[in-house]
Amino acid sequence: MNNVLILGAGGQIARHVINQLADKQTIKQTLFARQPAKIHKPYPTNSKIIMGDVLNHAALKQAMQGQDVVYANLRGKI
C-alpha cells in the first residue's frame, strides 16, 4: 500500500486517518474534499490535496488513477 486516496478528507474521522498516515513517508496520501479548507492543518508532507465532489464521476475516476487504496469517509446519498 503506497498510494492512498482519502475521500471526504475534510471530515472529522478522516482527520484521524490522515494523522495516522502522516508519519509514514512510504505512503502518499491524496486528500479529496469538496471544501479543502476543512482539512485539518498543517497538511502532512506526504499528501496532496484535490478539490472535488465524489458525485462528479469524472473527477472521482481521475483521482482514483494510480491509487492502491481508497478510503471513503462519506455520508449521505451517494
From TrEMBL:
Domain NAD(P)-binding stretches: 8-76
Source domain of life: Bacteria
Database matches in SUPFAM superfamilies: NAD(P)-binding Rossmann-fold domains
Pfam families documented for this protein: NAD_binding_10
Listed name of the protein: Putative NAD-dependent epimerase/dehydratase
One Gene Ontology term of the molecular function aspect: oxidoreductase activity, acting on the CH-NH group of donors, NAD or NADP as acceptor
Organism name: Escherichia coli
InterPro entries: NAD(P)-bd_dom, NAD(P)-bd_dom_sf, Polyketide_Oxido-like
